[in-house]
Specification:
five-stranded mixed β-sheet, seven-stranded mixed β-sheet, globular, Fructose-1,6-Bisphosphatase, Chain A, domain 1, alpha+beta, D-Maltodextrin-Binding Protein, domain 2
């Protein structure tokens, strides 16, 4: 079954797999024996990224053999005609993981056509499982969550994601624009968790000039199902190439979009 009716089944599978992957990440984080490399400047890679993605890929293939798979660290697996596609970041926040900072997560999203049907983000260090199925609301460890009621940037906290692709000048310009709007800018090193925090009302917004699909698609569904606003990431090739993203409380949408003035944001 590959239609939307199968989403609850895929949600349960994704939650179980995320917890298993999280347990692996947590164990390896504490033993500290992993090797660290770099894919580029400030672009960390550990052997645990590969181990975790392999585990997730194997579990999903066993459960849904016709589904496709797009992971950050491995080649994509083609899907059967009309089948769902899983989009996975095994460790979002690898730089934190590598440095011994306990702020990272696994992100698992499931797409059917151009819609995100399932989104799961698991923080193994806090044992927090954020999950959503399209049309079913967003939850944290089973409890319903919703975006904040913020209505003014002057009282808001906005995280600004770093994109090496766009360079320091553009990043600093966005931070400057956020600060000048009256909001408090921050960066914690995990885009997926930052977006999940918007869904949970812990943060009022997240902005990034260029983010990849595996970092954000689970969070995109979480924020939408939590009543928040998310720009249209998948329009214009976001799945394959990445795209800019704004996710925020509905009450600050217009002000935040105007303040950061990111080209390519599709409302």
């Amino acid at each position: 079954m590959t239609d939307a009716a199968s989403a609850p089944i895929r949600l349960l599978a994704a939650e179980a797999i995320a917890r298993e992957a999280g347990a692996l990440m947590r164990r390896r984080f504490f033993d500290g024996s992993f090797k660290v490399a770099f894919k580029g400047p400030q672009d960390y890679l550990t052997e645990v990224d590969g181990e975790t993605e392999e585990l997730i890929s194997k579990r999903l293939r066993a459960a849904f053999p016709d589904d496709g798979f797009i992971g950050e660290e491995t080649a994509a697996r083609e899907s059967g005609e009309g089948a769902a596609v899983w989009v996975v970041d095994p460790i979002d926040g690898t730089s934190n993981f590598a440095r011994g900072a306990p702020h990272f997560c696994v992100s698992i999203a499931c797409l059917l056509g151009v819609r995100v049907e399932v989104g799961v983000i698991y923080d193994p260090m806090r044992d927090e499982l954020f999950s959503a199925v399209r049309g079913g609301g967003a939850r944290l460890n089973g409890a319903t969550i919703q975006a904040s009621g913020a209505t003014a940037l002057a009282n808001s906290a906005i995280e600004v994601g770093w994109s090496a692709r766009e360079g320091a000048d553009r990043y600093l310009d966005i931070v400057r624009r956020v600060a000048l709007s009256g909001a408090a800018p921050s960066r914690t090193g995990s885009g997926a968790l930052a977006i999940a925090y918007v869904a949970a009302g812990r943060s009022d917004g997240y902005v990034e000039q260029h983010i990849k699909a595996w970092d954000c698609l689970a969070g995109v569904l979480l924020v939408r199902e939590a009543g928040g606003y998310v720009s249209d990431f998948l329009t214009g090739g976001g799945l394959a190439k990445g795209a800019p993203l704004i996710a925020c409380a509905p009450g600050v949408k217009d002000a935040l979009v105007a303040a950061v003035a990111i080209e390519g944001i599709v409302l």
